[in-house]
């Protein structure tokens, strides 16, 4: 068995600004920036298309308040060698 530890830092606070850049043609990947403010800091994060879709689904907009807590989460994934081998097989068999 192989164990993977993944640590994620969750920063919650006030959304100061969301900027989304859409391609001029209307087709393609959206990218953007999110400015978050907590009691300790103000930080700008780069956003990919999945995160932008999640924010839109949750109807997060400028000045949305999400709380003032900084959390750290740790997750351990357990994988067998067989699962690794199967996941690396060509998918066109």
Describe this protein with a few key phrases.
93 residues, alpha+beta, OB fold (Dihydrolipoamide Acetyltransferase, E2P), three-stranded antiparallel beta sheet, 2 helices, flat
Describe this structure in words.
By secondary structure, the protein is α+β, with helices and mostly antiparallel strands. The protein has one domain: RuvBL1 DNA/RNA binding domain (OB fold (Dihydrolipoamide Acetyltransferase, E2P), Beta Barrel), CATH 2.40.50. Helix content is 17%, strand content 44%. The chain has two helices and five strands; from the N terminus they run ββββαβα. It has a three-stranded antiparallel sheet with strand order 2-3-4. A two-stranded antiparallel sheet has the order 1-5. A hairpin with a 4-residue loop joins strand 3 and strand 4. The relative contact order is 0.32.
